[in-house]
Amino acid sequence: MSANAGNVARGLKAAVSNPNNSEEAKERAQQRLNDMEASGEVGSTEAHMAQVKQGHKANLNNPNTSEESKQHSKQVVDQE
């Protein structure tokens, strides 16, 4: 993945989640993002979610994080 492809993917994800964008714009952005993931141009959403889950597991064992943060991480890990 090139740095530019990563920036494009982040912009597309932002466009999809922006409530001010039309449904048509969101659909086009999602389709382009799906195409980029399918071609291997950017990492897949599944890979990203695995990294997020891994980060939450690490947070559970980190003595420097608050109990509130650990509770949130536990909820995320349990949902997966």
From TrEMBL:
Entry GO terms, CC: cytoplasm
Transmembrane domains' residue ranges: none
Signal peptide extent: none
Stretches for region Disordered: 1-80
Pfam families attached to this UniProt entry: Con-6
Biased composition, class Basic and acidic residues, residue ranges: 67-80
Top-level taxonomic group: Eukaryota
Protein name (record): Conidiation protein 6
UniProt source species: Phanerochaete carnosa (strain HHB-10118-sp)
